[in-house]
Specification:
Layout lengths: L5 H14 L3 H8 L2 E2 L1 H7 E7 L2 E6 L5 E7 L4 E7 L3
Length: 83
């Protein structure tokens, strides 16, 4: 069975990784940016489904998602779940 989000996710992965920005550029575009160590400090990772990572913010328990680029690996654009 094919994942109905696969084509959209592949498109987003290609888009994000086609310009592989440095931390400063990502920060200007998306706001706060985390490297892997910072991600582990601030969030509990629930799962990956590129280019998304589902997380639970440690400070307040809010569940949401982040986007990530492959190289260099940075996480950005935290979006809280609407549940």
């Amino acid at each position: 069975m094919k994942d109905p989000t696969e084509d959209l996710r592949r498109q987003k992965v290609e888009e994000i990784n086609s310009w592989q920005a440095d931390r400063g550029v990502l920060g200007l575009r998306y706001g706060q940016v985390w490297d892997t160590q910072e991600l582990q400090q601030d969030f509990e990772v629930q799962g990956f489904l590129a280019p998304f990572v589902v997380v639970k913010r440690k400070s307040d328990g809010v569940v949401g998602s982040l986007l990530f680029q492959h190289m260099p690996r940075f996480y950005f654009e935290f979006t809280p779940d609407k549940r």
